[in-house]
Write a structure and sequence with these properties.
By secondary structure, this protein is mainly beta. The chain is built from two helices and 25 strands. The radius of gyration is 28 Å and the shape is globular.
Length: 386
């Protein structure tokens, strides 16, 4: 009996008083917190700055607001540096998979820049002795490829320095000349062939702005199939897609002096340009469009094409900010059935695009009258305080 009692006691106490780590409970894991975003600035012009947001947490997404409200993971996603030329408060937080959201960083900007002040520009000043100068790589990147961007266009878009056929560094499609102009050129590399090259420059990921007055002084090609454009898209196209991101067409032009009758012309001898806004969804697009076609207007001559962007309103003008030919507000962006579409133009900054398309659904394709090379010249792009 004694031996059985001793054995039972030993079994009952087999885990007593030991120091083996195999039976210790590990401490609970600590969930990391994403690093709070930082706000850095570089100088623009006349007191304006360009703000950039960053987090040291790898793979973090930064959400931010520009109206002083507290950001959430439903706020605008940071995609590109943006111009600051007025009083505003930037608030931002970072979120990353497997991490707690960061605390909110706040940066208030206070300026006293007068209305109508030039705060950013690209003057396209070429370098003496350089036949083909590279457009500023700190501002401009490129869409590339054949039919890269829809519309059944015929061109292959080429980036600066591309050597992939049909692109060629010896015949670039976009360059800054010693004449002080950006040249965007549509080429037919082999005469009589149906291969065409051109360029589509964009400031996506590099520079953007929200609210102000933007304009470009331009000279446009006019032959069949040439489709020059100066326009903008929301930075958030990467997260909400087109057209929900909002599209602002400051200038589009087709058909030269043979404008289609749906814009009110009786061709030939009737030149015009269009200014438009687009929103809604891919399956239910909202838009508004106005044409500019005064007697004697020619897009082949030099003109300044501009937009005044304020909260809840877009205005387009030609040559002078007082010469407004189109005004759109939150009630003018409509679906085909006439109902009002959501207004996307107060959601956040947009980036700039300059391109020369060849052919496509709107202008129609190249024909025997089309002139190559087609040249779109840009003297400058400038942004002013509203």
């Amino acid at each position: 009996m004694f031996s059985l009692f001793v054995l039972a006691g030993a079994l009952l106490c087999s885990g007593c008083g030991g120091t083996s780590s195999s039976h210790q409970t590990p401490p609970p894991a600590t969930t990391p917190t994403a690093a709070t975003p930082t706000v850095a600035t570089t100088t623009a012009q006349n007191g304006a700055v360009i703000a950039s947001l960053a987090s040291t947490t790898s793979g973090a997404t930064i959400y931010y607001t520009l109206d002083g409200s507290t950001p959430t993971t439903s706020s605008q996603v940071y995609e590109a540096p943006f111009l600051v030329a007025s009083n505003l408060t930037v608030k931002a937080l970072a979120a990353a998979s497997g991490s707690n959201n960061s605390s909110v960083t706040t940066q208030a900007f206070t300026t006293s820049i007068p209305s109508g002040t030039l705060v950013w520009s690209d003057e396209f000043n070429g370098t003496a002795g350089t036949t083909y100068g590279q457009p500023n790589p700190a501002t401009w990147t490129y869409d590339t490829g054949t039919n890269c961007c829809g519309n059944n266009e015929q061109e292959t878009y080429c980036a600066w320095g591309s050597t992939t056929a049909p692109c060629s560094t010896s015949s670039p499609n976009a360059w800054v000349g010693t004449d002080g102009y950006l040249h965007v050129q549509a080429l037919q590399p082999t005469a009589g062939a149906t291969t065409y090259t051109s360029a589509r420059l964009k400031s996506s990921g590099l520079f953007s702005f929200m609210y102000g007055r933007i304009e470009a002084r331009m000279q446009l090609p006019e032959s069949q199939g040439m489709w020059p454009a100066f326009w903008m898209l929301g930075n958030n196209i990467a997260t909400v897609n087109w057209p929900a991101c909002g599209e602002l067409d400051i200038m589009e032009h087709i058909d030269g002096s043979n404008a289609p009758t749906y814009v009110g012309g009786t061709p030939p001898g009737y030149d015009w340009i269009a200014g438009s806004i687009h929103g809604g969804t891919a399956s239910n697009e909202g838009n508004g469009t106005q044409q500019y076609h005064p007697a004697g207007f020619s897009a082949a001559a030099w003109h300044t094409y501009g937009m005044i962007w304020t909260k809840g309103q877009i205005q387009y003008y030609i040559d002078d900010p007082s010469n407004i030919y189109a005004t759109f507000n939150t009630s003018n962006l409509v679906y085909n059935n006439g109902s009002v579409a959501p207004w996307p133009f107060d959601a956040g900054p947009q980036f700039v695009i300059l391109n020369l398309a060849v052919g496509g659904s709107w202008p129609g394709n190249v024909d025997s009258t089309t002139v190559f090379p087609g040249n779109m010249l840009v003297d400058y792009v400038r942004i002013y305080t509203p």
